[in-house]
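Long-time lurker. I teach an intro course on protein structure, and each term I like to show students one example going from raw sequence to a predicted 3D structure in token notation. This year I'd like something fresh instead of my usual example. Would anyone be willing to generate the tokens for the chain below so I can use it in lecture? Attribution to the forum is fine with me.
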Amino acid sequence: MKRILTIAAFMALSLVMGAQSYFGTLQARRSPEWFRQCVTYQLQMRSFTPEGTIKAADARLPQLRDLGVTLVYLTPVNVSDGDMNLDTWSPRQKKSGLGNPRNPYRPYDYFHVDPEYGTDEDLKAFIAHAHELGMYVMLDMVFAHCGPTSPIIRDHPDYFVYDDDGRMKTTQWLFPEFDHHNSGTRAYFRTVMQYYLADFQVDGFRCDVADAIPIDFWEEARDGLEALNPEVAMAAESLHGFNTRKAFDAVYGWKVGGGPVLGLLKNPGHAAAARKDIEDYMATLPKGTLVWNFTDNHDYSNDSYDDRYEKIYGHVNQELGLAFNFAFEGIPLIFNGQEICFEGRMSIFGHDGGWIDWDSAWTDGAKARFATIQHLAQMRRSHKSLTHGATVWIDNDCPDQVLSFRRTLEGEDDVLFVGNFSDREVKVRLSDGSRFRLAPWGYHFDIVK
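-- Reply from a regular --
Happy to contribute to a lecture. Here you go:
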């Protein structure tokens, strides 16, 4: 409890200090080099292949390797709860209309793979194959809540939170809420993570709604994981700087790629305001914090139904967002199918919600996007300033349409990004005198000559 109060005090201090918060004066933990340099692919198992299985996804790992991916992050593949009582379903799950109780973010059994996707051995083989191809694998851990019929409730009722009348509390998604102040709960979830690290040889964890769980739990868990593998990586679904002091290597880019940049792609004309929002947010993070940047993910895709961003905003528009995420500091994330401009429905709530038909996926536009991401990944591999360098914003004479910055690192080539976040051609002059003519949603991303 003292630790939580301390964090609350720090966050209050951040508000008083403005953009340069308390955490912005600190240093983030030193992250494993493989993670700092990675290109991430979020693989949503139900939508990645027509089969929706681990074996089918395994067969496509060489394709991801050829794309330039070095880290595959899997949405949850643990056994999910099959309770058919709609009162225990989240609003989003019911709204999907798929009638499937098995929500991957409503766990039933943390220690086994859901039969829908395959077996424990299939997952081990998937991870081993990724390693053979020079890639890493990260699993999604959902520790805030579980399904309503999970045997954990029967076996360990003290692991949960109750109201004054003795009724079990639920999270905002209507799922039973774990009590992370209970030492037994903490030990249980440390064991879960250590199990996948030791027995499956997974390389790291994406931690769902990380801020719903006390930070000292994650810090203790990190210590135990590093004893097994010093190169383990952890990413928090969180915005907050205190996470990267010790527990986590990265926070979510809700306030960079997934917020201001995505906002520009949807509603152009306020690039100057977006730049300020990004600068202000980055100033609140400990120095060296990695931001996991995306313009699409399982939440956005799920909730857009048939109006996927790729469909309603266009392929050129979405490519600009991807290019920004490769150019900006942090780690770029490619979502399931973005590499082929896939615009069909994808739902986390059931395989019937849509999947990629790879036999018909390779349109001319898909081939062009695939080649573009290969080039972006090659840029990231070839220029250390993109993985270790600072971001230096550059003023320009089209501030409401254009974002421009350099990535710079002593002894390395500078890399310049200039992006036209508008649906009109622009002729832009940077404050250093350089000029660019950019097509609608066009960009320049190259070393400084």
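Some talking points for your students: Confidence is low (pLDDT under 50) at residues 1-17. The longest strand covers residues 107-113.
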